[in-house]
Amino acid sequence: MSSHSYEVALHAEFFTKDLKPILNRITVHSDSSQPFRSREVVFEPLDAQIQRDSGAEPILLRARKELSDPKAPWELYSYLKPESVRVHPEATVRPWTTCQVVGDALSFAAALGYVQKSQIYKSGYAFRRGPLLILMAQQEMLDPKTQLPIPPHADTLWEVEVKTAHPIRNTQETPLSGAINAVLEIQLLMKGLLDLRRKDV
């Protein structure tokens, strides 16, 4: 058994015209739902280019904050490369490390030797279903002058992530197969409305 913790996920995209039926179907099959708005800052190591030149893919560090809750802490997390499609053809399974940060996560990341690469603001809906988190969101545009977010265009694609809410260790008590089956259940529930699939990023 591996010592890693994992995230299991499926992804999809759709146009705003399909929002209502998709929203209705996910709501019916969820335990809870709420609007959310988040900011995510992506960092790369100072030597990222050197790593790329030598053929290695640098590990990115991400800092995420829930903006709808003023008291929400920053969460720092990092993904490793997804497991091969031969091992897990049905869903994206990737090692996932996460920790909460009290105070300024951006300065903390800089102190670890990381530089900011990009930032993303998203707004949409968050659903919980058992061990899963379902995020349905549009990326907000960044104003080039102020670097502040502006609402998404009407034709901005909606992105859907169906994933495990917390990192999972592949043990006898919590086998990865249980999490994979849970996301595949959502894939089946959404069939005909949403094409949830594995994504390698």
Might you state the CATH topology name? Hypothetical Protein Pfu-838710-001
Low-pLDDT regions: none
Q: Total domains, how many?
A: 1
User: What's the Cα radius of gyration?
Assistant: 18 Å
Oligomer: single chain
CATH class: Mainly Beta
Mean pLDDT across all amino acids:
93
| Cα shape | globular
- Specify the CATH architecture: Beta Barrel
Please provide the count of β strands: 10
Total number of helices: 4
Strand order of the largest sheet: 1-5-4-3-2-6-7-9
Helical content class: 10-25%
Q: End-to-end distance, in Å? A: 24 Å
CATH superfamily: Hypothetical Protein Pfu-838710-001
Characterize the main sheet. Answer: 8 strands, antiparallel, barrel
The chain-level structural class is alpha+beta
Helix-strand sequence: EHEHEEEHEEEEEH
Strand content: 35-45%
Family: Belongs to the Mediator complex subunit 18 family.
Protein name: Mediator of RNA polymerase II transcription subunit 18
Subcellular location: Nucleus
GO molecular function: transcription coregulator activity
Layout of secondary structure:
Blueprint lengths: L4 E10 L4 H10 L3 E14 L2 H6 L7 E6 L7 E6 L12 E10 L3 H7 L2 E16 L2 E11 L6 E2 L7 E7 L3 E2 L6 H14 L12
Antiparallel strand pairs: 1-5, 1-9, 1-10, 2-3, 2-6, 3-4, 4-5, 6-7, 7-8, 7-9
Could you give a quick summary of the protein structure above?
GO terms for molecular function: transcription coregulator activity. With 201 residues, the chain is an alpha+beta fold.
